[in-house]
Amino acid sequence: MGGRFWDRVTAPVPELSVAVLLGAAAVAALLVLSPALWRTTRHAVTIAHEGAHGVTALLTGRRLSGIRLHSDTSGLTVSAGRPTGPGMVLTCGAGYTGPGLFGLGAAALLASGHAVGLLWALLLLLALLLLQIRNWYGLWSVLVTGVVVFAATWWLPPQGQAAFAAVGTWFLLLAAPKTVLELQRSRRRRGAPHSDADQLAGLTRLPALFWVGVFLLVDVGALAVGAWWLLG
Predict the structure, then answer these.
(1) Does residue 109 contact residue 117 with C-beta atoms inside 8 Å?
(2) How far apart are CA 116 and CA 163, in angstroms?
(3) Nearest Cα to Cα of residue 110 among 168, 71, 45, 152
(4) Which of 31, 72, 89, 118 has the most CB atoms at less than 10 Å from its CB?
(5) Quick one: angle between helices 115-130 and 158-188, nearest 10?
(6) What pLDDT is stored for residue 5 in this prediction?
(7) Residue 120 class from Cβ within 10 Å (0-12 exposed, 13-18 middle, 19+ buried)?
(8) How far is CA 167 from CA 4, 53, 67, 77, 130, in A?
């Protein structure tokens, strides 16, 4: 039983045509650019954002205390450890770069034909994230996302799973730069005085605008490389 399941997870999926990949990109662009849809789909980016904070905190030796996701698409990741230093800088910087880098990793798996493995890896990450959620809305948000991914993984045929994975990959790659632009608009209105960029400014003495530029550079770079891997 276990061997058959592993074979299913690791089985390569036939390569998607350029037309299907472009169609998936168009669907993802609609999810990102439509204001009505973005109000809902942005929650998925928040999950990736806070998950990236949490993973980086653990990798840098900090103690993760919990993650909260809110209905206004904001979130909070609390970790304990030194209040300054490289670990804190990397943890703060992971949020806005995380979705783009997750999208880049997804593009690498998808381009190598491992769409099914990509979806199961996403389910595993959501399950691990669920253990760190500390509020009811966050619990609901992660569970709904997990149910959608599980349904696609369990009931869609291999080509359908690959197309679903392609939409998710394009979504992360396209959504990541948009959230950085939203951050800067909010900062201009002085609506985000405690943003990740402003926290990094306090930690490094480099201006917050510099960090916004770093976030955008990483996310646009991930989009460019990911698109090259998928379409090239």
Answers:
(1) yes
(2) 10
(3) 168
(4) 118
(5) 50
(6) 58
(7) buried
(8) 27, 24, 26, 27, 23
Could you give the CA distance from residue 176 to residue 82 in angstroms, rounded to a whole number? Answer: 28
Long-range contacts of 138-145, Cβ-Cβ distance < 8 Å, separation of 24 or more: 138/67, 138/68, 138/69, 138/70, 138/75, 141/43, 141/46, 141/47, 141/69, 142/47, 142/69, 145/43, 145/44, 145/47
The dihedral region occupied by 152, where left means phi > 0, alpha psi between -120 and 50, and beta the remainder, is: alpha
- Tokens matching residue 50: 């806070």
Task: List, for residues 142-156, the tens digit of each pLDDT value.
Answer: 999 999 999 999 999
Distance of CA 178 to the CA centre of its chain: 13
Query: C-alpha angle with apex 52: 159 to 113, nearest 5 degrees?
Result: 20
The model's pTM: 0.94
